[in-house]
Amino acid sequence: MSKDNTSSNPAAKLWGGRFSEATDAFVERFTASVTFDQRMALEDIQGSLAHAQMLSEVGVLTEDEFRQIAGGLKGIAAEIEAGEFPWSVQLEDVHMNIEARLTDRIGATGKKLHTGRSRNDQVATDIRLWLRGRIDRIAAELTRLQSGLVELAEREADTIMPGFTHLQSAQPVTFGHHLLAWNEMLQRDFERLRDCRVRVNRSPLGAAALAGTSYPIDRARTAELLGFDAPTENSLDSVSDRDFAIEFCAFAALLLTHLSRASEELVLWASSQFDFIDLPDRFCTGSSIMPQKKNPDVPELVRGKTGRVNGHLVALLTLMKSQPLAYNKDNQEDKEPLFDAADTALDCLRAFADMVPALKAKRENMLAAAGKGFSTATDLADYLVRRGVAFRDAHEIVGQSVSFAIEQQKDLAELTLAQLRQFSDQIGEDVFEVLTLEGSVAARDHIGGTAPNQVRAACVRARELLGKR
Ligand code: ARG
Fold first, then answer.
1. Residue 380: inside a domain, yes or no?
2. How many whole angstroms separate alpha carbon 413 and alpha carbon 432?
3. pLDDT over 70 (residue 92)
4. 202 and 321: one domain?
5. 201 domain residue, yes or no
6. Residue 256 Cα, ligand 1 centroid: separation in angstroms?
7. Whose CA is nearest to atom 3 of ligand 1?
8. Fewest CB atoms less than 10 Å from the CB: which of 233, 241, 265, 276?
9. Does the structure show a pLDDT above 60 at 117?
10. Burial class (CB in 10 A: 0-12, 13-18, 19+), 408
């Protein structure tokens, strides 16, 4: 190691005591996390304030020492918020940057803050506080999106569109019903997020490096001061557990998967081939070469961002899979994937929550498309069953009718009664009522069905759930 490849003197490190040689300059950069973990600076200060207050309450710090530390930390928070904090890679991470700064500002008392804790329980606390804040913002944005969806679903409760399986016209559905399917996915995502928050909201503070501490700390008190539901149970697990981050990423991956599926449909519907919706210009961009183009970039990008969030989930699972207890430096790699998963989830929700209420349904086009592809064929079969024909026979009869209609280049409803009766004498004049699209959707009149009145009832239930949040 050459001289100019070494950093400043080892004593400058908060842990420099047992070292006789300065850290290699590259190793210093390689091992530092301050460039990304400074995002948790305010949570780090919040955790330190609670820790110092608890230490003063149990008599490890004097009240005056606590006052000095608290004053110093608040000053540092102001510096950070003003963008004036002198972050240093030599001080490795957010924790040591802030602690060193505290001593700069208030002198020797600053060196007492780290009594009875370790960066291991400190970082676990900071991540949980940071993630809890993000979860609450994501939950609010999810609620905004769902509220917009339910409102649009109610407006479009009577709008008929083709329903698809295998992306082939299957049976007519209402657009409101389709939108409520998206809402169900998001409702489950919300429930998963709420469930994840329960496990995030426990306090690891007091686990110290791994074995706990010999000071008379009060873990329940720091948990309470930080708004955690309770302290975590086992000190070894407390400093090594990142399940909560993995769970969050699993939530985010599923959320993005749902948004991606919806995006795919928006992209299809906005194409001139489908032409079911109009996406407002402000959510689209143009082409630099083809003047006619209006590209649905926002849903495309949401679909694309699903890949990175899925990647973050796999990264965290892989990060943890071989770690022996307790803390290992590997864990420093947890932050960037977690931060990015949370940022991406929030941004994508925001894009959707803004975009969905602005969607314009092209009702006539949807209706016309629903009329194509023999989408009421099942209704004709059900009609025959009601007249005593066995379902399998009815299926066969309708199959022959469809084949005939294809030859005639007509829809089923456009055939004459005589033409239909070639295939079954059970068919009467009233058949044309079930062959209409309106009759078909109205007939699916049960909980979870596509009938307009069921869609409206489902909107009421969805809104009730949203109101309870
Ligand atoms: N920067 C570290 C991390 O993100 C903080 C904890 C370091 N602890 C240690 N014993 N080196 O995990």
1. yes
2. 6
3. yes
4. yes
5. yes
6. 30
7. 332
8. 233
9. yes
10. exposed
